[in-house]
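Sharing a chain and its predicted structure for anyone who wants a worked example. Both blocks are below, sequence first, tokens second.
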Amino acid sequence: MFVELIATIFAGIACAGLAMLLNIMTGRRLPKWVMPVAAGAGMIGMTISNEYTWFGHTAERLPKGVEIAMTVDEQGWLRPWTQVWPYTKRFVAVDTGTARKHPDLPEQRLADIYFFGRWSPVNQAPMLFDCGQARSALLIDGAEFAADGTVSNAEWEGVPEGDPILQMVCET
């Protein structure tokens, strides 16, 4: 976030410098408001660029075996350009490389799920999926595994049909 702020400030300075150079080249005929408007336009442009490139840069740096399962696009009236071109604000990734299953329960899979957000830290949680019954359980507190692979104290929730996270985990 700090690096993006510095980049935005420098983009404003660079655009103001270009406006100043253009003013000098035209014999100082441009109005005085051109330089601050150029600085503001450069800063807004850099902010928009950062919003749209965040997802691509973050996705490129995911380790091998971590695959994107779902993205959430954002639109807002305060950013009118997002009505035409929404940007990805958050996404969910699944660590398919370390997904596990118990030999006695072939329909159940345990995988690490990562939640990424534009201005939030990455959250990781282990999640148990039942591919046969289309349900999942977040294993944060209180869930215990027995020797036969069954789980007690898990809060199972139904997963809608066609859920991309369930499909990705069950295909591995």
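Comments welcome. The chain has two domains: 2-60, 66-171.
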